[in-house]
Amino acid sequence: MAEPDLEASPRVYARIGGALYLIIIVLGLFAEAGVRDKLIVSNDATATARNIIASPLLWRSGIAGELFMLTCAVALTLIFYVLLKPVSKHLALLAAFFNLVSIAIQATYELNLLQGSFPLADAAYLKVFEPSQLHALAYLTVKSHGYGYGIALIFFGCECIVLGYLILRSGFFPRLLGLLMQIAGVCYLANSFALILSPTLADVLFPAVLIPAFIGEASFCLWLLVKGVDVPRWEARAGVGAGSRSSS
C-alpha cells in the first residue's frame, strides 16, 4: 500500500489553508485596528505612552496575536506550495521563499513592540531619564516597527504577485482570484515603497491602496474555505490518475 501524502487530498488542504488564512486576516485586523490604531497617537509620544501604560494587556495581546498569526503563515506557506506546485514547482518555491522572508522580518520587528513597553515600566533604573525622554524612546520603537512591517510587506507583495500568476495559470482556481491577488501584491508594493520614499504620500495612499489588497486576500481565503480546489483539474496538472489512486 502506498503511503498517503499531502497531494492525496488537495481539497482538504485547501480548506485547511482557507481556515489558516482566515485566522491570519482576523488576527492581523485585530492587531492593527483593535490595538495599534486605538493606542498609538500619531506624532504624540506622550499620549501613546499613556495609552500603552493604561492598557498593557491589550498591547501585549496584539503582539501575541501577531506572533500566532505568523506561525499560521508558515503552515499556510507550505499549503500554498503543495497546491500550486503542479503549475510550476520553481515559481511555487519562489513564492514560499518570498513569504518566509516576510515572516522572518515581521517576527523580528515584533520585538520592537515589546521594547516599546520597556521604557514605560516602573523600574528604578529608569528614574535617571525624564518622562518625556522615556516616552520618546517608546515611540521610536513603535515607529521602527511600522517601517519594519512595511519592509516585510515588500516581500509579501512579491509573494502575492507570484501566487496570482500561478492561480491564473492553474486551471483549478478561478482566474479572477489570480488577478485579484496580483493587484493585492502591487498595492502592497506601492504602499511600502511610498512609506520608504515619501511617508507623507504613504499617509495619503494608505487607506485606498490597501482596500484592493484586502478584497484580493479575502476573496482567495473565502474561495479556499467554501469551494476548496477543483480536484479533477488539480489531479490532471499534478499527474495523479485513477491508477495511482487505486494502488494506494
Structure description:
This protein has helices spanning 10-39, 45-54, 56-84, 89-117, 131-170, 175-197, 199-226, 231-238, 242-246. The chain is an all-alpha fold. It has one domain (9-121, 129-238). Helix 1 runs antiparallel to helix 7. Mean pLDDT is 89; it is low at 1-7 and 242-248.
Class derived from helix and strand content: mainly alpha
Number of domains: 1
Element-level helix/strand string: HHHHHHHHH
How far is the N terminus from the C terminus?
5 Å
Radius of gyration: 21 Å
Q: Report the uncertain regions.
A: 1-7, 242-248
Helix percent band? over 70%
Largest sheet: none
How would the global form be characterised? elongated
List keywords for this structure.
248 residues; 9 helices; elongated; disordered C terminus
